[in-house]
Amino acid sequence: MVALTLSISLLIPWFRLPVLGWEIPAPAWNRAGLACLVLAGFHLLRAVGGPPFRWLVRIATLPALYFWWVSPEWAKAWGARHLAPAQLKLAPLNNALARLGGDTLELYKPPLWKTLEPQTGWYVAGGTLILTLLLTSFDGPNRLTCSSCKGTFTEDDRFCGECGEALKGGPHCGHCGEELNPNDKFCRRCGTES
Fold first, then answer.
1. Has residue 147 got a pLDDT over 80?
2. Among 68, 78, 152, 194, which is disulfide-ready with 32 (CB 3.0 to 4.6 Å)?
3. Phi, psi of 190 (to 5 degrees)
4. Three-state SS for 11?
5. Cα–Cα distance measured from residue 3 to residue 179, given in angstroms and rounded to the nearest whole number
6. 6 and 60: one domain?
7. Predicted pLDDT at 123
8. At what angle do helices 31-49 and 120-137 cross, to 10 degrees?
9. Do 120 and 154 share a domain, yes or no?
10. Residue 70 neighbours by CB distance under 10 Å
11. Domain identity same for 152 and 129
12. What is the pTM assigned to this prediction?
């Protein structure tokens, strides 16, 4: 669910960039969007791969939150760094248009870029990242109950710690815990007679 929300938030415009007098919707086309996409991939690995990927999600959430938080300033700096020089190169063309009585081309207006506000997608991504951080903080191994003695065990355990009952699948080797096929007379892992 979190991975799906992160993926959808990448498609919703994070900013409306003022270029040539138009407001161009810009999705997460910067480092924040990439960090959210990587985190969504880690969530999918967590769903498929299980507990070993739990810490991968926790670790990846912090840089994703950082890049998300600084992305408005990054977008403003991108406009100043890339569009301001292009506006200067348009100066001769704008002078010619002004002499002819035409409208000048305003590729970059500093006041508009300085007041650039995040849009819905930015807020959705941030909310999802904060929710991810909270959920993964409390995400631990699932506690299950033994059907024989009602003792608790984790999803990684093979035998119940209270009664010794095999918890998963068919019979297990009493020596090494390897799962045995119904027809096995000896363990395929350690060779102990079953």
1. no
2. 68
3. -115, -10
4. helix
5. 34
6. yes
7. 92
8. 40
9. no
10. 14
11. no
12. 0.62
